[in-house]
């Protein structure tokens, strides 16, 4: 009788690397995170996401933002911990976490909302209470449809 013993395959994913998570959260910009400081922070996030293979869609105005990030489960878990520990001043509020088969975003997508008619149309389609962009007043389903509408052409 021959008993074969072997080490687990290196291709075997033990920590969920093969599972793609999609995490959506909202936040509020503080006075110190507006203007140039906000631009620097967004550029830092873009570079970090690009290096780690995380894709993202971010909608921001002067007061609030919505971000959806997608990537392997361990990376998304690390990002969530970092958000809570290092960026608590943004008041991150988790809107949705789900496993997805295929990523929706390609790279780091960014949309800065202005008071233009086009941006107001996006807001009104997804948020019927008015044209003001305040994701804390939106339901999770409204946030999801809002992101889809903003980045539909991308």
Q: What secondary-structure arrangement, pairings included, does this model have?
A:
Elements (H helix, E strand, L loop, with lengths): L19 E9 L7 H17 L2 E6 L3 E9 H14 L6 E8 L7 E5 L4 H10 L13 H11 L4
Parallel strand pairs: 2-5
Antiparallel strand pairs: 1-3, 1-4, 2-3
Description:
It is a single chain. α3 (117-126) runs antiparallel to α4 (140-150). β2 (55-60) and β3 form a beta hairpin. The chain is built from four helices and five strands. It has 154 residues and is of the alpha+beta class. 25% of the residues are buried. Strands 4-1-3-2-5 form a five-stranded mixed β-sheet, sandwiched between helices. Helix content is 34%, strand content 24%. Residues 4-8 have low confidence and may be disordered. It starts with 19 loop residues before the first strand and ends with a helix.
């Amino acid at each position: 009788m021959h008993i074969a013993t072997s080490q687990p395959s290196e291709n075997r994913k033990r920590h969920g690397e093969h599972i793609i998570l999609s995490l959506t959260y909202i936040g509020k910009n503080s006075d110190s995170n507006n203007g140039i400081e906000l631009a620097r922070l967004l550029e830092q996030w873009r570079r970090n996401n690009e290096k780690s293979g995380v894709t993202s869609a971010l909608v921001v105005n002067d007061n609030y933002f919505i971000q959806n990030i997608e990537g392997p489960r361990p990376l998304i878990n690390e990002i969530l911990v970092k958000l809570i520990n290092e960026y608590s001043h943004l008041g991150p509020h988790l809107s949705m976490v789900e496993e997805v088969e295929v990523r929706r975003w390609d790279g780091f997508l960014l949309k800065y909302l202005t008071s233009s008619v086009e941006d107001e149309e996006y807001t009104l389609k997804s948020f019927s209470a008015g044209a003001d962009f305040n994701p804390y007043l939106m339901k999770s389903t409204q946030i999801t449809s809002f992101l889809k509408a903003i980045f539909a052409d991308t």
